[in-house]
Amino acid sequence: MMVGEKTQVVSSTIDVVKRDGRHLSFEPEKIYEALRKASDELSHISPVQDVKLEHLTEKIVATIFDRFNKNVQIYEIQNIVEHVLLDANEYQLAEVYINYRTRRDFVRAQATDINFTIDKLINKDQSVVNENANKDSDVFNTQRDLTAGIVGKSIGLKMLPSHVANAHQKGDIHFHDLDYQPYAPMTNCCLVDVKGMLRDGFKLGNAIIDSPKSIQTAAAQISQIIANVASSQYGGTSVNRIDEVLAPYAALNFAKHMADAKEWVAPDKHEAYARAKTKKDIYDAMQSLEYEINTLFTSNGQTPFTTFGFGLGEDWYACEIQKAILQNRIKGLGKEGRTAIFPKLVFTIKRGLNLDQADPNYAIKVLASECATKRMYPDIVSYDKIVELTGSFKAPMGCRSFLQGWQDEAGHDVVDGRMNLGVVTLNLPRIALEAKGDKARFWQIFSDRMTVIKDALVYRVERVKEATPANAPILYENGAFGKRLSRTDSVDELFKNRRATVSAGYIGLYEVATAFYGGEWESNPEAKSFTLDILREMKKAADTWSAEFDYHFSIYSTPSESLTDRFCQLDTEKFGQVKDITDKEYYTNSFHYDVRKNPTPFEKLAFEKDYPVYASGGFIHYCEYPMLQQNPKALEAVWDYAYDLVGYLGTNTPIDHCYACHFEGDFKATERGFQCPNCGNTDPKTVDVVKRTCGYLGNPQARPMVNGRHKEITSRVKHMNGSIGHLSNGDELESVTVDAAKSKFFKK
After folding, report:
1. Is 430 found in the same domain as 577?
2. What's the whole-number average pLDDT of the chain?
3. Choice among 132, 188, 223, 228 that is catalytic
4. CDD domains of this UniProt entry (predicted)?
């Protein structure tokens, strides 16, 4: 658009005062773009020519300049636009523009209108009932939670700083978990200090729980801890190094059985007897724990999002616990052996312990790879890479959030009992679209939006600090968060000095680079460098905030279960269909490779490895495979290749099962449901369909809320996970090296 000299002066001397009180530089081009969009809506009648749109824009800008010399309110600009259009006899254009502004005001009002959203819930609106893939909206307590969430969101939007609320509603950012926070000053995900709670005892409800005297009791206590923690926060509940946590209680079982053996068994069989009995106790305890977690129902109407990290234990008890966890998962739930959705299993691979065939626990790694081919879990974490990326070793909180290394006053590394205070995600593709190929403009908008992200995150921290220990006794008073507070203590004792994290998320690096370099940019070093620069700048800003406020601001590769759609839909309304960006109807999750391409797992991991360096607050890599149950060595080859490249790797492989014909593989998605490709069975009672959704598994066939949307869900799984990197089955089931796997098992 051509603008006159007078317009250029205006743009540098006048600020626009937005509805939320922000002052932004006046940009004449935004007026032109608004008129052009209105004209586009008249394309089927009589669109206005570009030359005339430019002339109208010049007149509007001149009028603004004549009337204002410092600040202009946004509604005053809109009034001037309307009057100039009417004076120019552009009645149809004025009508479209006025209607658009009215619709925007109406939508803004609806966001805080509880009655409007409750009506959507009653009428089963997909945007309300399907926000979480593991919530069944037909269940009473889920319906109650969704209703409470509507109230929480409406009130929360009014509580937020006005410019943060406005940015969320427009889609510049996404303030996660608005149904819980800020209405309630709740925390997000955590690594529960299970070790300390079991060792020192704790209180649940009216019961004082003493330290357990057996692994069976310890496992039962863990399930109760998980249920209570999950009901007191809104994020994932993780148990770090559970094999090592439970090993001392298995040792108590062994001591008891040794005492029995000395009384009843021949002396040369004492240890064999005690080991056999203890091994059975361990297996049964792990089986009970898995069943208990999958039958728990928290106050928000879902099974707790639970993660178990394990694999580093070296003594006999810990090794038996590791094997029992994997064996129970392979066996499955019930007589049919259905795949357990929770807990998410995260197995640690460590050089010298279980990575190579000569390592003492290598056999457990082999069992883990077998389990992953049959149940998708465990995901794996690479010990050395996690330490390199985050500063110390720990399991992820929830599906992908990682704490950073932190030491207490005594210089001891502390992992358990720490937590995250929430996430706010930046819509990166929108910035790229607004920049229109101008990188200087991109960085200017980026800087402005990061200021909003900062304000949103600081607000999250300040709001959570308003909680009291009495709000969540399990967290603050009874040890889940480590240090036990009294009722009069400030909860900030557990957050400050960078003990807690708060996360700036992002989405759509693929689309950002596409806006500047085209849709095939992955092999372009300049394009990739640009995407890394974005994360580098985000981390630089987060580090500055950490130094300013003394909480750990981290960069988080958001698990965008519904956000991949929400941001794209909003941007399609704003920018229309843009090739390889909005025309796909989704945005690519975090730093993942474009899911429409087909690199090998090796190529995909080599490409993605550079991003978590700057986004160590949350990340995961995925590769997609065909059915691998007869070829676990191929999966192990990828694990070995990944060890020195990436810290956290997930497996996507077909594990659907038909109990009518016993077919195993990938079911066909239809409008009626998931269908066995062998016998056509669609009965949810006799099929087991499990898909991974952003870190956790889900059972879409068992969720009435998604009936009729199975094709959509299947198509969304890949772009949510970024799970590509295709592996071919291969015909021979032989031990392979990484180099052999590259040529033998993987498509080029």
Report:
1. yes
2. 86
3. 188
4. RNR_III
